[in-house]
Specification:
Blueprint (H helix, E strand, L loop, with lengths): L1 E2 L11 H22 L2 H7 L5 H22 L2 E5 L6 E3 L1 E7 L13 H16 L6 E7 L3 E8 L2 H10 L12 H12 L7 E7 L11 H10 L3 E6 L7 E2 L1 E5 L2 E4 L1 E2 L2 E2 L1 E2 L3 H10 L1 E6 L6 H10 L5 E4 L6 E3 L1 H23 L3
Parallel strand pairs: 4-5, 4-7, 7-8, 8-15
Antiparallel strand pairs: 1-2, 2-17, 3-16, 5-6, 9-14, 10-11, 12-13
Helix pairs in contact: 1-3, 3-10, 4-9, 6-7, 7-8
């Protein structure tokens, strides 16, 4: 059982007050009877006193009040038949975590900008509970960080934990990442899937399959590939790999500082081959939000089962029914007590 408004249970604290008031009323009642007539004559001139019956009525009334408070707490359990099945698409984020994503030609760096954009996308999904999110990171090889899930918190946690250097094989192999993502995720129906490749487009080319060929294979399976460029293609940027922000240690190769320049041409070719869109993350990082609104929100969807955690059915009606039953029983006993014997 789950309570939708558990704070209402704080009202249960008033129940002991009813018992204290009852005890006080009983003492006052006893004093008044004693003041009216002497004890030996009380049974002859006064109606019979039934303290035990009044205690039963008090218990019934207290239980009824407790049931009303429970109803206010909105208990829920079981499946809600009104919840039905949700519909949505699989959104697979294929995120570049190679060293070049540390370049700071955008703030705070390319990887940080990419993560912010993905978070904005998750926020934009809002109440669209049917979409499943998956995360695949890659450098020299791909790795599934989060399998397809409707648990947004889990996805965001895995997104935040993705950092440059957590994959043992260095470099950047976009073709292997795309092919590996399709194979490892084993989506039940790729026709209802959108792959979001987020990268600066740099590719070392040392891989079993070329990036454009992998994009064509993905499209042949029925999925769509959207290529999202991050970074400023107008300039080459060094790659800080350690040190302080104002005194970074830059990546070097054979004594020369390595500079990285995003490759929009490759990303455009990938989007064309993959049947999706090409876009660049702007300064506000809102490109993914627009992509969702323009290309994903209205795309065909499939049934994906019940929402995350299941929609529990509201059961407050049962608590209210119990409260009414208890009050009715207390009223009947009170009428029986008042009737002449």
């Amino acid at each position: 059982m789950r309570l939708a408004a558990p704070h209402m249970l704080l009202l249960l604290a008033v129940l002991p007050a009813f018992w204290l008031l009852h005890r006080r009323a009983e003492r006052v009642r006893a004093r008044r009877r004693a003041a009216l007539v002497d004890a030996p004559l009380a049974g002859l001139v006064l109606p019979p006193d039934r303290p035990a019956e009044r205690r039963v009525q008090l218990a019934l009334g207290t239980a009824a009040l407790a049931a009303i408070i429970l109803a206010l707490a909105q208990p829920q359990w079981g499946a809600d038949p009104r919840g039905g099945l949700v519909r949505g698409r699989d959104i697979v984020v294929v995120l570049d975590v190679s060293a070049s994503m540390l370049a700071r030609d955008v703030e705070p760096d390319r990887l940080g900008r990419a993560k912010a954009a993905v978070r904005s996308l998750v926020d934009a999904l809002g109440g669209e509970a049917g979409h499943r999110l998956a995360l695949v990171t890659f450098a020299g090889r791909p790795e599934v960080r989060c399998p397809p899930t409707r648990d947004r918190a889990l996805f965001l946690d895995r997104l935040e934990s993705a950092v440059v250097g957590d994959l043992p094989q260095r470099g950047s192999a976009i073709g292997a990442a795309l092919a590996g993502a399709v194979a490892m995720l084993a989506l039940p129906d790729p026709a209802f899937a959108d792959f979001l490749l987020i990268s600066d487009g740099e590719d070392q080319g040392i891989q079993a399959i070329e990036p454009v060929d992998a994009a064509r294979l993905l499209a042949a399976a029925g999925a769509r590939l959207h290529a999202v460029l991050v970074g400023d293609p107008q300039r080459a940027s060094p790659i800080p790999i350690a040190g302080e922000p104002d005194r970074p240690v830059l990546l070097e190769y054979r004594g020369r500082t390595v500079e990285s320049r995003p490759r929009p041409g490759l990303m455009t070719a990938l989007a064309e081959a993959g049947g999706g869109r090409h876009l660049a993350l702007g300064a506000d990082g809102g490109g993914l939000v627009r992509l969702h609104a323009e290309a994903i929100a209205d795309a065909p969807q499939r049934e994906l089962g019940a929402p995350v955690g299941g929609e529990r059915a509201p059961r407050f009606q049962l608590a209210l029914a119990a409260a009414l039953g208890l009050l009715a029983l207390a009223a009947l006993r009170g009428r029986a007590e008042a009737s002449p014997q």
